[in-house]
Design brief:
Elements (H helix, E strand, L loop, with lengths): L2 H12 L2 H13 L17 H9 L22 H17 L1 H20 L1
Helix pairs in contact: 1-4, 1-5, 2-3, 2-5, 4-5
Length: 116
């Protein structure tokens, strides 16, 4: 496991609960084209933006409508920012598909432990 992969898994674990739940639903839905490098572009979104859109809190380039778990009008919350950077770095290293697998692995491992 590379350092970037470990950082991404840790970043998933530190996401606030509402963000994790929305991200799990967004990624499972297949409705969003996920791309690293930008929060949102003409061709895709990062997993954080997909989660914010799924939760109905993304508006005018921010997720502040979701409250402090998501961030403010000027920046995402610290755990969300760390996740976004970690996702981009690992996607650059291993590819977007592999980075998404790691994110889903982290999200699903957590949901299984909560169900136990």
């Amino acid at each position: 496991m590379s350092g970037h992969e470990l950082n991404l898994l840790e970043a998933v674990c530190w996401l606030p609960g509402p963000v994790r739940r929305a991200m799990r639903r967004a990624l499972a839905s297949g409705w969003y084209h996920i791309e690293p490098g930008f929060y949102e572009s003409e061709t895709g979104v990062c997993p954080f933006v997909a989660a914010a859109k799924m939760a109905g809190v993304w508006r005018d380039g921010h997720a502040a409508d979701g409250g402090t778990d998501w961030g403010s009008q000027t920046e995402p919350g610290a755990p969300c920012f760390v996740f976004a950077v970690s996702f981009d770095l690992y996607a650059e290293e291993a590819g977007t598909d592999r980075a998404l697998e790691v994110v889903l692995q982290g999200l699903n491992a957590e949901s299984r432990s909560l169900a136990a």
